[in-house]
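Task: sequence in, structure out. Protein: Cytochrome c domain-containing protein.
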Amino acid sequence: MDPIRNPYAPGAGQRPPELAGRDEQLTAFDIVLERVSRGRPERSLLLVGLRGVGKTVLLNALRSAAVRAGWGTGKLEARPDQLLRRPLASAMHQAVRELGHPATAEVSHVLGVVKAFGSRDATGATTRLRDRWTGGIDAPAVTGRADSGDIEIDLVELLTDVGGLAADVGRGVAIFVDEMQDLGADDVSALCAACHEMGQAALPVIVVGAGLPHLPAVLSASKSYSERLFRYARIDRLDASAAALALTAPAQEEDAVWDPGALDAMYAVTGGYPYFVQAYGKAVWDRAPRSPITADDVAVAAPDAEGELAVGFFGSRYERATPAEREYLRAMADAASPDEPSVATSDVARLLERKPQSLSPARDALLKKGLIYSAERGRIAFTVPHFGRYLRDHS
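Result:
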């Protein structure tokens, strides 16, 4: 098969040629956009799932839908070492520009509020001139609005002003936050409080977040009412028919077909996880001599895909762990069963012949690095599908 015409796209956040299995979420979001634009109440949305299930791809698709609806949008990626204030200010700057409000004076005022919000540090003090944030905003910073330094107060004031601007033109503003579980505790609390306030004020502002499976627990620990603020959409692996569509639809565009047996073999090796579907699809296309693609082609190409995943998908994450953390990860893999993705921390301790308390530093570090998550009290699981199998095969 011609590698230049290979239609598959394994990449972090890279949209596949066929976004299969996500019609339900896309349709539901279109309804949210229309309802909010008409002043109807709607909750913000959170996409929750393991790595490799396509949360970022879907987040970007939802943003595209909002742009098509004439909304103002802004996107940021949360990082553990970064406060929310400045990336959110940049996102809101873009959202205000996209709204296209006709009143120049009102837009300038709101941009001044955005600038004031982004220009304050955590204490509310003004930073040195050379370090002062401008975000490319020409308007002067507004004094006394979103500039107290208290992120919860400032965020409510910021979204209130931006939401009012959106309401003037009969549209809305959507803030898209990727890796939302990495927000700091104060920022999570402020975001929940702001969403609560926007709902009470009936302002057309929503947050669309994406994060790992423990994101609901992160929010709940911050605000007890968070489960009522957000609608959670669990993003999981594709079923067999959706995985087949993700492979066959792009192939048909290139005048190629997959045998039914090849599709069954692909589902067996990928488990329906979208990233793996693309990675194996690309490898099989490059190896297959001709169309139709067969189960034998899948068998021949599988080691190529596994080798690439071992380096780029699994290996890069494993390398971030210290020796003690790697030992913990390998014990997790040994303790896991095929039918249960999570393992008890006591089982890990037993395998390592250690007291559970002595393993807390390694476990906590892996949680912070996003390699594992707490599925429930006393149980942990990998954030990356098939990671346990990788560890068992490469230990």
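The chain has a mean pLDDT of 91.
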